[in-house]
């Protein structure tokens, strides 16, 4: 099927290098025109003007740099779950699984803000994303609430540039887990607000809900969540 499609489209493909060259020149010209009066990086006013962060708007076309951010760590345990387990362990476990799935995929260049139980300031996590010029920053968390019956997944974004990324991954998470859909929400969490790159924060479920927590600690559930995140990335980047 693939071969036949390739044969059929051989002729038009001759024009693809020319089109790419044209788009590159156009992108460079736009960058030069905008560069002169850019507001300082990180200021609130430049958030809505980062059109270059959209997939396809990136002249590189891949590999896409993915930065996985396991929430909390070290002296910051995060939320204490119903069982007494700490959020920082669940987030690292899921982050490692996403890393493993992306590691050998040529479409991606994958990084982690932490690979072990170490403490990293929120500001530093955003800095890593900005320095790396990540194409997607994915912060992994578990939620907590006083009422143990509250359940479900929430995905947060801040800059409007990140909404498509949030939608692509949130949809897959809901479908894969069957968890309650608490929606996609806009919030200026530090790791998102200081991030100049497409960035989202996922609350994968409520650790304060005993039933939900026991599933979230199950390695097989974590495998499925990691796959859902990768499926969402593939959809977002059109892979
Ligand atoms: Zn958290």
Explain briefly what this protein structure is.
By secondary structure, the chain is α/β, with parallel strands linked by helices. It contains nine helices and six strands; from the N terminus they run H-H-H-E-H-E-H-E-E-H-E-H-E-H-H. Helix 4 crosses helix 9 and helix 6 runs antiparallel to helix 9.
Keyword list:
six-stranded mixed sheet; binds zinc ion; 2 domains; Aminopeptidase; single chain; 239 residues; 9 helices; alpha/beta; disordered N terminus; globular
Per-chain topology:
Layout: H1 2-8, H2 10-13, H3 16-35, E1 64-70, H4 87-103, E2 108-112, H5 122-132, E3 136-143, E4 153-157, H6 163-177, E5 181-186, H7 190-193, E6 199-206, H8 210-216, H9 219-236
Parallel strand pairs: 1-2, 1-3, 3-6, 4-5
Antiparallel strand pairs: 4-6
The structure holds zinc ion (ZN).
Zinc ion (ZN) binds next to loops.
């Amino acid at each position: 099927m693939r071969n036949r499609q390739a044969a059929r489209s051989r002729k038009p493909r001759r024009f693809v290098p020319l089109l790419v060259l044209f788009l590159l020149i156009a992108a460079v010209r736009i960058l030069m025109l905008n560069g002169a009066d850019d507001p300082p990086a990180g200021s609130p006013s430049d958030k809505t003007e980062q059109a270059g962060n959209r997939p396809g708007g990136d002249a590189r076309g891949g590999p896409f740099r993915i930065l996985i951010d396991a929430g909390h760590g070290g002296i910051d345990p995060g939320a204490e779950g119903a069982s007494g387990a700490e959020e920082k362990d669940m987030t690292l476990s899921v982050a490692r699984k996403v890393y493993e799935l992306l590691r050998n995929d040529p479409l991606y260049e994958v990084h982690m803000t932490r690979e072990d139980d170490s403490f990293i300031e929120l500001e530093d996590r955003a800095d890593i994303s900005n320095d790396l010029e990540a194409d997607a920053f994915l912060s992994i968390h578990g939620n907590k609430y006083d009422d143990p019956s509250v359940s479900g997944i929430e995905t947060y974004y801040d800059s409007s540039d990140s909404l498509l990324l949030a939608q692509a991954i949130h949809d897959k998470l809901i479908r894969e887990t069957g968890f309650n859909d608490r929606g996609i929400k806009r919030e200026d969490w530090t790791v998102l607000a200081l991030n100049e790159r497409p960035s989202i924060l996922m609350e994968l479920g409520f650790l304060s809900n005993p039933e939900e927590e026991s599933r979230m600690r199950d390695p097989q559930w974590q495998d499925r969540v990691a796959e859902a995140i990768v499926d969402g990335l593939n959809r977002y980047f059109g892979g």
